[in-house]
Amino acid sequence: MPGLSRAERTTAVVIGAGLPGLAVATELRRRGVDSIIVSGLDSPGSSQASQAAPPQRCGAPGASSREERNEIIRHLRNYAASHQLDIRNDTSAVLLEMGTATAGDSLHRWAVHTPDGVLMADHIILTRCANGQLRRMITDLGISVGQNLVAAMRAIGIYLVGVGELITPTPKEVLRQAKVVGRAISAKVNPDSVPSVLTGSFAALPAPV
């Protein structure tokens, strides 16, 4: 990718600063993995812009569900502030571009183009995108999707958190997905490391009902 020698580099870029984005960024931080969180993805694709993802359908949450979600977000924001997570609420991704791995590096390197510059990362976490768009994005990159979309995306360093088939996942499911993704990325970044006692759970978070 010519012209990117001065791009900003990080281990992972989290696209979306809502509950899913905060949850996975927190999990990555607890596992010692650096990340940059941007507000969203304006036009997902590889070489061509496409329309923004439509909202996912979900039922009207009850008062207890809203309270639970708000409480979890409050805890995650407090954690983000106290641990100085790099959250860029005013920056959105406008283009994802996949490059080639550097010599001796088995990971794919991504260029995340934003209005403020380019972020280089080995892993991308998407927190809001329709399945149809994801399949088009993978196809545009020249990759055969097959039946298992998630497996095809993980093979090139893209992970999903908070993205449901039709209905938005519950806060409990979002936290579970964040842990799974955090563990998977950490295993690739630090394959020889021993997980710490803090990586298995979101300490101080209220237990989902």
Distance between the termini: 47 Å
Strand order of the largest sheet: 4-3-2-8-9
Low-confidence stretches: 44-59, 196-209
Residue-averaged pLDDT, rounded? 78
Helix content: 25-40%
Our count of helices gives: 5
Rg from Cα = 17 Å
Strand content: 15-25%
Structural class: alpha/beta
Shape: globular
Could you spell the SSE succession in H and E letters?
A: EEHEHEEEEEHHEH
How many β-strand runs? 9
Sheet of most strands:
5 strands, parallel
Give an account of the 3D structure.
- The protein has 209 residues and is α/β, with parallel strands linked by helices.
- It is built from 5 helices and 9 strands; from the N terminus they run ββαβαβββββααβα.
- It has helices spanning 19-30, 63-82, 131-140, 149-154, 171-189; strands at 8-9, 12-15, 35-38, 86-88, 95-98, 110-114, 117-121, 123-126, 158-160.
- The strands form 2 sheets. Strands 4-3-2-8-9 form a 5-stranded parallel sheet. Strands 1-7-6-5 form a 4-stranded mixed sheet, with no helix packed on it.
- Strand 6 and strand 7 (117-121) form a beta hairpin.
- Helix 1 (19-30) packs across helix 2 (63-82).
- The longest helix has 20 residues, at 63-82.
- It is globular.
- 32% of the residues are buried.
- Residues 44-59 and 196-209 have low confidence and may be disordered.
